[in-house]
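User: Can you recover a sequence for this backbone? Please restate the input before giving your answer.

Assistant: Of course. Working from this structure:
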């Protein structure tokens, strides 16, 4: 099979004094070799918990894997020991974050931080690791790598820091890169450069990417497939073309409606969907979007909709897909 990663009916919860927060509730998707899969949704939808679960960065306790599997090369990551996970993290699966300062070490030169993984995971000698570090700095487009390699993160600009973080993440040529809001903190020009860089590296290194973002503009520019999450569940998944031009779930319609368009300022979140997501301490038994959905029917509040196929690559969890539901037109048509 061509899948690098398979997430299978994943349930992740957090124990709190108020009860169990069911942050991820039966999420399934796969990532193929060389593919970029974007996970989109509002904050609190479970997209970051999903990605942190793959990296095993969920603090346990209070977090715990309740059910399901995360299969990476036939290993279930939810069941590995911390030592086994250490060997995968940074080597086979790497992660970049919105704020490079949270993952860069301020007291270590950028060069040493790139070399660290190479020495640890690939057992390269110092000279060879340094050569590789220079190559990586060059590859991510940092000018004059020879002087930059000995500098500290604070000597880099925001965009250069982001590039340095990508260099560190990709130094060991991981099979999977998880990027959690990688460009959110950057201005539009630098953002475009970083996205180009990620696209470029994906092709050169054949890395698969999971991109976590709330920015649909970024999704359109980078992703092959999209997973739309809401209240800890996947509500729709499909190719970028399917999700942008033929979305079928009312929540996705709402997301698309709030997408910043080219003629409007990019960093404004427009027309947010009215209402709030359900409390995951006691999730509703029916469709989680029912409380905000214009098209909610009686059954929506009573029973969870099943996931149905709109095409081989397009899945939707909504009662409107059922033959007994009224026909509802998508509220807009994007011309692609
Ligand atoms: Fe709306 Fe019902 Fe579909 Fe949920 S299942 S999105 S409430 S129509
Ligand atoms: Mg987040």
């Amino acid at each position: 099979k061509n899948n690098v990663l398979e997430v299978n009916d994943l349930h992740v919860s957090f124990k709190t004094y108020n009860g169990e927060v069911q942050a991820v509730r039966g999420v399934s998707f796969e990532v193929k070799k060389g593919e970029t899969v974007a996970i989109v949704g509002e904050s609190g939808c479970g997209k970051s918990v999903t990605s942190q679960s793959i990296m095993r960065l969920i603090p346990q306790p209070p977090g715990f894997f309740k059910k399901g599997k995360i299969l990476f090369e036939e290993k279930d990551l939810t069941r590995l020991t911390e030592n086994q996970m250490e060997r995968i993290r940074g080597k086979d699966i790497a992660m970049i974050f919105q704020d490079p300062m949270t993952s860069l070490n301020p007291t270590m030169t950028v060069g040493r931080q790139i070399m660290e993984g190479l020495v640890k995971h690939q057992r390269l000698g110092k000279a060879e690791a340094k050569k590789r570090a220079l190559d990586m700095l060059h590859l991510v487009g940092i000018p004059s790598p020879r002087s930059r390699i000995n500098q500290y993160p604070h000597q880099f600009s925001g965009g250069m820091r982001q590039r340095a973080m990508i260099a560190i993440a990709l130094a060991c040529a991981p099979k999977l890169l998880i990027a959690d809001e990688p460009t959110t903190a950057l201005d539009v020009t630098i953002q475009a450069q970083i996205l180009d860089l990620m696209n470029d590296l994906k092709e050169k290194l054949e890395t698969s990417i999971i991109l976590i973002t709330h920015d649909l503009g970024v999704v359109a520019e980078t992703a092959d497939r999209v997973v739309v999450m809401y209240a800890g569940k996947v509500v729709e998944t499909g190719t970028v073309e399917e999700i942008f031009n033929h979305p079928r779930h009312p929540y996705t319609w709402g997301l698309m409606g709030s997408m910043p368009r080219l003629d409007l300022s990019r960093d404004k979140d427009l027309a947010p969907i009215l209402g709030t997501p359900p409390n995951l301490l006691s999730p509703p038994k029916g469709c989680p979007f029912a409380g905000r959905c214009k098209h909610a029917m009686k059954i929506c509040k009573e029973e969870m909709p099943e996931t149905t196929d709109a095409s081989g690559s397009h899945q939707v969890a909504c009662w409107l897909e059922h033959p007994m539901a009224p026909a509802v037109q998508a509220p807009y048509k994007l011309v692609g």
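That completes the design. The first strand starts at residue 3 and ends at 16.
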